[in-house]
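Input.
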Amino acid sequence: MSSLHISPRANHFSPFEKFLLRMKPSRRMHLFDSMAISDFVSLASASSLLKEITDIYKDTAWKIDDFFSMWFNTSLEFRCMLAFTGAIVSGSQAIRFLDRMEPAASSDLDILTRVGGVLSLVNYLEGQGYHRVEKKPGRKEDYPLLADIFALSSTAQFCKGGGKNGILEIFDFKKRLFRAIRGVDRLKVQISVVAQNPIHHMLFSYHSTAVMNYVSHDEAVSVFPLSTFVKRVSYPSTRLGLGREWNPSWKAKYEAKGFRFDIKSLRPAVVLGRRFVKDRCCWVLPHGGEHVHRPNPMKFPS
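Output.
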């Protein structure tokens, strides 16, 4: 863990800064763990000393290499593969990372990529000991994995732009563990092949605002951070009528994770109007240990 470099002008520190300096590192970690993410980021911008103190916590709480080590022997190699293929990690694992939670061994690691990135990702997963999950029994076609990959750009689904959900194909992989992790003896990775930029697919195809977060090779981004990580409320993104009996399976899934869904509020906890990825309303969290050309890489929208 990094150490603090205390200025000789320590008598100019505020009472709160002195309080933090006197705390044991473990107690300071516990204090920051209990703070809302928005409050923590505001604290980090209050003074140069507080930024140094909070940077130590940030590099521990949002350590992407530790997070990805659940699935891969060398996290940096996987991040290089994300960069090479233009793929992103999304879904519940992206939420857990941004929410300072441990990865869930029982859940898939969801990877979004376009057709051009599939072969490289599949080869990498197989090199990491993953094997493709067998297709559903009763299916007439039983082509080798490579044949399925090379045929992606000639399918009817590809010609339709992925159809309703924009997904061309889904490849599921599993790896058996020598030692179970929290009762789980297999790790799962899912590659979803999409017809457009993976980030655009997330924005225009995902069911609600709570899941519009992603992790790339060099940063993590939340498009609706205040509603997702502070208010714990999500808004459906569909343009179709919801109906009186609206209760899809994903709604119950995320309600079990502590989110509520708002379909009635006239003043939602999101900024309305023209938006784009990594605008001032997004939360952009660069991965630690990198030189970032941003004045405030931990800025959280207010």
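Residues 290-297 have pLDDT under 50 and may be disordered.
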